[in-house]
Amino acid sequence: MQRWRHGLVGLAVLAAAAPFMAPEVLAFPYQQDFGADRVWSTAPIPETRMAAILADANARTRLSPLARDDEGRRIFLTDGGWRWRVLALRAHYAFALTRAFREDLIVNRSDVPTDTVHNGLGDGRTRAIAGVIAHEKCHGMERRRFGLWVDLTKPTWLREGYCDYVAQESTLTDAEVTALKKSDPNHPALPYYEGRMKVTAILNSNGGNVDRLFAEAR
User: Fold this and answer.
1) pLDDT at 21
2) Which of 15, 35, 37, 131 has the greatest number of CB atoms lying within 10 Å of its CB?
3) Positive or negative, the Cα torsion across 84, 162, 68, 110?
4) Nearby residues of 73 by Cβ (< 8 Å), 6 or more positions away
5) What is the radius of gyration, based on Cα positions, of the chain?
6) CA separation, residue 204 to residues 79, 85, 174, 210, 213 (Å)
7) For residue 33, what are the CA distances in angstroms to 30, 55, 61, 160?
8) How many whole angstroms separate alpha carbon 75 and alpha carbon 132?
């Protein structure tokens, strides 16, 4: 009886963990390969448009010295519904996220024809899918180069700022930043913008040395 109980507990744990190890178990109805990237989606995937988006994202990541080729990933485009809520857990407000080890890339409510991702804050802000994919691929590049512990040992402004630097975009405009600093100084998008500005300044001053950037950041 004890053995059966332990077995059932083990099965329950595996069932609960399965979506995080293999998001495709959540029955994404569409799937297609694009070079080194494999895309799952809750909506039909316009092949030409998706290929162009990934080409754009990969062109951005290739500019980083941390990149290896096109940084192929398993990419899951959601509609912001139950699949996103299951996979995002408490990060439901984000545009996207990646899971360490497998580096699966999970994207919030996406619209491929318009190259748009919506966040979960309800503030109407969007980002380009290409930029979001480049940003999230960069997190995997950081972990590979500097170790999994980089997420714990290095400040948010550095990790997120460098990924926005690689993505070549931020969620906020200069005007929005000025307004938010007055109205909502704790807005979650501010560290990304400020980090990108800081990273840009440091790399401009140190000759673009990313290893030195991470080594010296506190």
Assistant:
1) 54
2) 131
3) positive
4) 36, 37, 38, 103, 104, 105, 133, 136, 137, 140
5) 18
6) 38, 39, 20, 11, 11
7) 11, 13, 19, 28
8) 11
Q: Distance (Å, rounded) from C-alpha 118 to C-alpha 185? A: 21
Q: For residue 54, count other CB atoms closer than 10 A to its CB.
A: 23
pLDDT, averaged in runs of 10, over the chain (218 residues): 46 42 86 98 98 98 95 96 92 90 94 94 89 98 96 96 97 93 91 96 98 96
Q: According to the model, what pLDDT value does residue 1 have?
A: 56
CA–CA separation, 101 and 120 (whole Å): 25
Return the pLDDT at 20: 52
Task: Say which residues have a Cβ less than 8 Å from residue 207's Cβ, sequence separation at least 6.
Answer: none
| Alpha helices (runs of H) in the chain, residue ranges in sequence order | 2-21, 47-62, 82-88, 129-146, 150-153, 156-167, 174-183, 190-205, 210-216
Q: Is the pTM of this model over 0.70?
A: yes
Q: From the CB of residue 182, how many other CB atoms can be counted at a distance below 10 Å?
A: 7
Give Cα separations from 1 to 6, 8, 12, 14, 74 (angstroms).
9, 11, 17, 20, 41
Q: Give, as one character, the DSSP assignment of residue 24.
A: G
